[in-house]
Amino acid sequence: MNEKTKAYLAALSFSAIIGFSFLFTKIALGYASPLTNLAHRYTIAALVMVVFHQTKLIKVSLSRKDILSILPMSLFYPLFFLFFNPLLYSIYRLLKLEFYRLLSRFLRSF
Would you kindly state where each structural domain of the chain is located, as residue ranges? Predict the structure, then answer.
């Protein structure tokens, strides 16, 4: 497998993981709070990475320059997710409540 094919597979895998994460998050929010779901998500991700590193399935060699270039995204992505996930969950619940309130008013008008 050449490098171009590996790059396309990596991009496709990344897109699938990110895309399905919202679906799984929506399902999981029916069972636990947003912060509990995030705690489980990051714990599982850390355990998978430790297993991959210990079994030598991945090789990690990062220079100081690499770490400094990755650091902003590694800090801001979880912070944005921690901020927007509960916010969107709250908006979803409010819209759902408002929908049922409007539906009950509509049905009472008949």
Answer: 62-110
